[in-house]
Each structure stands twice: as structure tokens, then as C-alpha cells.
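Q: Got one fold?
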Amino acid sequence: MNSSEQAEDLKAFERRLMEYVSCLQPATGRWRMLLLVVSVCTATGAWNWLTDPETQKVSFSSSLWNHPFFTISCITLIALFFAGIHRRVVAPSIIAARLRTVLAEYNMSCDDTGKLILKPRTNIQ
């Protein structure tokens, strides 16, 4: 295989890699927005729950029953984490980190967008 064919193969691999990473971005953005909204709702509900004077006077379960917004948003946040939202939010960086590990064997790396970085060859004598 001559150097022009190798260069074309590397360019094709880089294009495919960048395409794959860019396709992850819209879904990642939606998951981040959902996590942000649910986190803000949980924090707001927690503030209302903690500042309510009735919270100290009733039992824990009654207190949660009296604050359904906090209860539902907290359960939703916990369910999202059990469903793996923490992995979906950082999916592109996980893919890039794994690629860097594999590409290191070939004296290459990549940035977070999938663009290849060619490292100089080391001559072993």
C-alpha cells in the first residue's frame, strides 16, 4: 500500500470518526438539558421542602406527601441515574477517551470532535 492510499484511508477514517462523534452531539445535548431541568426542579422542590415550617412537625413520609413536586422530581432524578443518564451525558468524551487509548498504539490520537492527531514516529535503534 503506497503513501497516497494510506493518506486516503486515514482521511476516510477521520471523516467517519468525526461523523460518528457529531451524530452523538444532539442526543447528548438533549440528555444534558433534561438532566439540568430535573436537577433544577429537584433543587427548587428541596428548598421549598426544607423551608416549610410544617416539615419539622410531621413525619418524614407525611412531609414528602405534602410536597409532591419535590417527591416526584427527586424520584425522577434517581430514576434517570439508574437509567444511565450520567453515561449518556458524557458519551462523546467516553468515545474519544477510548479512541485515544486504541490510537496510541499507532502513534495517533484524536481530539474531542474526532479529528485525528498524528504523532511523530520514534526511531528505535
